[in-house]
Design brief:
alpha+beta, Elongation Factor Tu (Ef-tu), domain 3, Threonyl-tRNA Synthetase, Chain A, domain 2, Diaminopimelate Epimerase, Chain A, domain 1, 3 domains, 9 helices, binds zinc ion
Length: 405
């Protein structure tokens, strides 16, 4: 199949071209349109695919993705176009510019890390709204800030970016942060004046100013080095806009200035912790009273075991567990803690030391009464079911059952 003339390789600013359909092959979910030339960059080298449209015979066909195989570019589409048809290919410029900003920013930031702290870029990933590079060493927050500042300074100097084709023997003489000795023949070299030189197949702006800004958004340890998340240009602006909205929202909720949001949240957290402590103390006090009442007048089952039954409303699992543990201290007792949380009734059964009984049977009865689920073993079981309006009456039935079994 004839190779596609990749107009974007020599002129990344070209947004439209005329072309002739050479092939139209059937793909899994549509068609792959092959043209003699195109302005649409196919996914490759870490850069995402361009988007655009092909116009022919007054109809417009959307191209959401293009791929490349053996220098042939397949414009993926849901409609076919007859071979030989003359068409116009138009780029979605904003999508292209977004990708160029990220890709060029990636070159420049990688150069900055290499120059400032001798960290090498060993991985590059770009997806919508997320760009990362992997560095082969850990970098400090200070180094990250330096690299970010250096890159932005180069962006604002609006340095020329030149694409050149040269033999690999010439490329070998250049000082580059990344060299692939395996590449031979004519190589495509992207050079930022006074900055990065890199072998690359992607599209780049003609000068660094078009990148707009680079902002590192996250750094984490990764495979003995660092993974640096960052965004450039419009994607960085969108990210900053979103994050500012979160901060403004939080500052309104806390009725505090934006710069005091973290202090406000930290105060809120310590207030919550103090309230939790207070609540726990109150629950402990309340449970001491409940336990004393139950122990003062325990029910006795048919087989002679003490029945220690607690029934609580608006109770949580942690409190129920601690109540059960307090009752467990009493020997020779069957313990049942039944409690309501929202629209659920939960129940836990346990045998203290010396007690006879079978928690498996108790849980089966409770499950039957409350249409619930749960299980356990002979000495301990728990479960829960629906809290119907007559749940208290069902608890009384369960108590009777426990007394007689
Ligand atoms: Zn590149």
């Amino acid at each position: 199949m004839s190779q596609t003339n990749k107009l974007y390789e020599k002129n990344s600013m070209l947004q439209e071209c005329e072309a002739t359909v050479l092939e139209c092959i059937e793909l899994k979910n549509g068609f792959g349109i092959v043209l003699d030339q195109t302005v649409i960059f196919p996914e490759g080298g870490g850069q995402l695919s361009d988007q655009g449209e092909i116009t022919y015979d007054a109809s417009k066909i959307k191209i959401e993705h293009a791929s490349e195989k053996a220098d042939v570019i397949y414009h993926e589409s849901t409609s076919a176009i007859p071979i030989g048809e003359k068409v116009t290919v138009k780029l979605d410029w904003q999508v292209r510019l977004d990708h160029m900003q990220q890709h060029c920013g990636e070159h420049m930031l990688s150069y900055a890390f290499w120059k400032i702290c001798e960290a090498n870029n060993v991985g590059f990933h770009m997806s919508k709204g997320l760009v990362t590079i992997d560095l082969d060493k850990e970098v400090t927050a200070e180094e990250v800030a330096k690299a970010e500042d250096f890159t932005n300074k180069q962006i604002w100097e609006d340095l020329p970016i030149v694409v050149a084709y040269m033999p690999h023997t010439e490329v070998a003489k250049l000082t580059m942060r990344k060299k692939n000795e395996k590449l031979t023949g004519t190589l495509r070299i992207v050079t930022v004046e006074d900055g990065d030189i890199c072998t690359c197949c992607g599209t780049h702006p003609t000068s660094t100013g078009m990148v707009g800004i680079v902002k590192v958004t996250k750094v984490e340890k990764h495979k003995g080095g660092s993974r640096v998340e960052f965004l450039c240009g419009r994607w960085a602006l969108e990210d900053i806009r979103n994050k500012l909205n979160y901060i403004v929202g939080a500052s309104n909720m806390l009725s505090t200035k934006e710069e005091n949001v973290c202090n406000g949240i930290s105060k809120l957290k310590s207030d919550i912790d103090a309230l939790k402590d207070k609540l726990r103390n109150n629950i402990e006090k309340q449970q001491a009273v409940v336990v004393a009442e139950i122990l003062a007048n325990p029910l006795i089952s048919a087989n002679g075991s003490k029945l220690l039954i607690a029934v609580e409303e608006d109770y949580d699992a942690a409190s129920a567990k601690s109540l059960s543990q307090k009752l467990m201290i009493e020997e020779n007792a069957v313990i049942a803690v039944i409690y309501k949380t929202d629209n659920r009734v939960n129940y836990m059964f346990a045998l203290s030391e010396g007690a006879t009984g079978n928690c498996k049977e108790y849980i089966a009865k409770a499950n039957e009464l409350f249409a619930g689920k749960g299980g356990g073993n002979n000495t301990s079981a728990q479960g829960g079911g629906e809290a119907s309006s007559d749940w208290i009456a069902k608890v009384e039935t369960l108590k009777e059952y426990l007394k007689n079994n």
